[in-house]
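Throughout our pipeline, every protein is held as a single compact record rather than as scattered files. The record that follows is passed on verbatim for readers who wish to inspect the format:
___
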Amino acid sequence: MNLSTGLRKFMLIILLAWISTGCYVPISRPGAGSRTFFPASPDEFTIGETSRIEILFKMGEPDRLSKDEKELAYVWVEEKGVFTLTGCDAHPIVEKTTAVFRFDEKGILESLDVFYDE
């Protein structure tokens, strides 16, 4: 075995050891600039009965609003953990929840959709 082959094997072992130092740390905290919690359960809202004003009162100011104001969206981002592969850089594992409320012309809840993105 010549010096070049030995050096390559040594560097490969060092590289594999460095990469294998990665880890996952579970956490649960709101993402930067996100709402801290879901202030109301979707079960609290009844399609065809709950008004836009009631939702604004319970949920607060929406994160997104359609131009005609018939659609309100609330977004939560939660960091579920941090993954690091080399020990040098950390990547957050996030889960995003979006609740979209749609209203008819009278301001009564027409639909409520909740989306989860990981």
